[in-house]
Specification:
The structure is a single chain. The protein is mainly α. It has ten helices and no strands. The protein has one domain. The chain has helices at about 5-10, 15-35, 45-55, 55-80, 85-100, 105-110, 120-145, 155-165, 170-180, 185-205. It is elongated and about 60 Å long.
Length: about 220
């Protein structure tokens, strides 16, 4: 029995390459769906004015693109630090991809119901909940990986601590914006964009340490 247990644990240690490849494909697909949902302007002699009238769709696209980009950047850093994956991590990753791939739908709601009072508030609320879940699941991925020892053994402790701090979900910020969206939808959407920038800008400062290979 004592010999079988370590072997069974080794069989559960999975390479993370397939997780990364599948995830990148879903992120790319979700971003592609965003641009496909931008509506063509109404046929008019004044095309410039018709294009300008579609600004809610452009704003929704920009916010969602930035959010997916922020999640992808965080996900990329997490997977760079992974030594291996396990069954639970794969399923947590699927939950994250479920939420990310759903984002084009509330994005389209934002563009379609802009300026329609009550429907717009509902759309902004659905949108905010989607963003909150995305941020929360990214944090869950990282915290689970560190707790279960899935991180590369050569990862610097300072990097791990910094990542743990940076990848904490902005729950208070998202909850505040979701509540604000019930009264000031446009301001809430602008806040979502600023939160996306908050996660995008500092992530490039964290780079995995290169593994030094000693000469034989």
């Amino acid at each position: 029995m004592s010999e079988e247990h370590p072997r069974s644990r080794r069989r559960l240690a999975l390479r993370s390459a397939r997780l990364e490849g599948f995830s990148d494909g879903i992120f790319a697909f979700a971003i592609t769906l965003l641009v496909l949902d931008i509506a063509l302007p109404i046929r008019s002699p004044d095309l410039l004015r018709s294009l300008a009238a579609e600004w809610p769709g452009y704003l929704a696209y920009f916010v969602s693109f930035s959010t997916i980009g922020a999640v992808w950047l965080s996900h990329t850093v997490i997977t760079e630090y992974l030594d291996h994956a396990d069954q639970v991590l794969l399923r947590l990753n699927l939950l994250l991809l479920l939420v990310v791939s759903f984002l084009p739908f509330p994005t389209r709601l934002l563009a379609a119901y802009h300026g329609q009072a009550r429907p717009e508030r509902v759309a902004v609320t659905v949108y905010g909940v989607n963003l909150l879940l995305s941020s929360l699941l990214v944090s869950v991925l990282w915290h689970y990986s560190t707790r279960e020892g899935l991180i590369r053994p050569d990862a610097a402790d300072d990097d791990v601590r910094f990542l743990t701090k940076r990848l904490n979900p902005a729950i208070a910020g998202y909850l505040a914006l979701i509540a604000l969206g019930l009264f000031l939808p446009f301001v809430a959407v602008t806040g979502y964009l600023l939160l996306a920038f908050y996660f995008i800008l500092p992530i490039g400062l964290i780079r995995p340490r290169r593994i030094r290979v000693s000469p034989r």
